[in-house]
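User: My collaborator sent over this chain with a note saying "see what the structure looks like." That's all I know about it. Can you take a look?
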Amino acid sequence: MSATFTEVPPTIGQLVTQRPARARVFEAFGLDYCCGGKKPLAQACQEKGISLDAVAAALEVSDQQPAPDLRDWSQASLTELADHIQQTHHQYMKNELPRLEYLTGRVAKAHGGHRPELAELRQTFLQLKDEMESHMAKEEQILFPLLRQMEATGARPDFHCGSLGSPIAVMLREHDDAGAALAHMRALTGNYVPPPEACNTYRAMLATLAEVEADMHQHVHKENNILFPRAIAMETRLGDA
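Assistant: Without extra context I'll predict from the sequence alone. Here is the result:
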């Protein structure tokens, strides 16, 4: 077996940045490559009680497959990546969050009598929805414009927080909170597996929650492991010039 994944200590986020298709392997094993993307692969496997050799073997198989049509966002400009995140992932959330608000309410009302965890699921989702709407607004109205300005002018942005590190630190904490909410909803629903009595609305809710989680993983990975580190590195270079 190649030593690439078992001896060399790249982080999970770096592995996905190098080859985005690897995200599917980590998702299959339940390994967090977005908020937990700064952990070395061996550490992440140990903490989850997963065989490192099994994950490494799956990664090697994945790497031998023809690469899907996934753009390498580490080669994009900050502006291109910020635009992509806003137009793709933010827009997706803006479409799906109101739909899930309706679905979680309807399912909790119809099935909550014998599945009390559905009330907790709805409350967790509503908190996530409020936090994500605020989070996306801060990125779209404050952080992303600063990144675009810095790249366009070649100068460090001048704003009240002083450094981009301050708003980025807030975004990172909010990503962690969102990840915890998604993990809790997955636990409450038994990995989004519908119970035998689940109606079509119930099944649609679970399927959509799973899709939102998958999209959020891609969204947070692009910010935590690509956009934010590159923005801070650019600001540092400009400050040293």
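A starting point for your reply to your collaborator: The chain has eight helices and no strands.
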